[in-house]
Amino acid sequence: MIPELVATVASGIFAGAALYINLVEQPARLSCGIELAVTQWRRSYKPGTLMQAPLALIGCLAALLSFWINRRLEWLVGGLLLLFIIPFTLVVILPTNKKLESRELDVRSEEAGSLLRRWACLHAVRSILGAAAFVLFLVSLLWSR
Predict the structure, then answer these.
(1) How far apart are CA 137 and CA 145, in angstroms?
(2) Is the Cβ–Cβ distance between 29 and 119 less than 8 Å?
(3) Count of CB atoms within 10 A of residue 52's CB?
(4) For residues 84 and 129, is the Cβ–Cβ distance under 8 A?
(5) Domain extent at residue 98
(6) How many other CB atoms are found less than 10 A from the CB of residue 51?
(7) How far apart, in whole angstroms, are the C-alpha atoms of residue 128 and residue 67?
(8) Total of domains in the chain
(9) What pTM was computed for the model?
């Protein structure tokens, strides 16, 4: 039961943080204008990564351990959803991050605004994956009682 609880808590915190970023932080950031939005994104991205990456990894490993112990498919599926977040971030989102972090980027340009909007769409994929894993784990825990 401990791996299931760890996976559920880690995925829940991950999903909550990711959804908060998409639904609250990013719209607030963009409402301040592109220059301030890029500046704020640059300051918040690294701390967010330091929180979210371990949560996705811990949730994934705990879910896969649960699957290995109990052979219940929902823990495998949820663990793989969380695992997919990591390569998706590194392969799909990282190029946009690098452009946003670049000191050569004119933070007042339409390109900067476009990059921020693209980043929000890509981050929404992470939010959906984390939320799907969390809901799957919650339903599994409730049905197993």
Answers:
(1) 13
(2) no
(3) 21
(4) yes
(5) 2-143
(6) 12
(7) 22
(8) 1
(9) 0.93
